[in-house]
Amino acid sequence: MLNELIEEGGAALAYGAVGVALLALGFLVVEITTPGKLGRQIWTEHNRGAALILAAKLAGVGAIVTTAIAASEDGLAEGLASTAVYGVLGIVIMTLAFYLLDLLTPGSLGATVVGEEGQTPTGGMAPACWVVAATDLAIAAIVAAAIY
Question: Per-residue pLDDT tens for 80-97?
Answer without folding.
Answer: 999 999 999 999 999 999
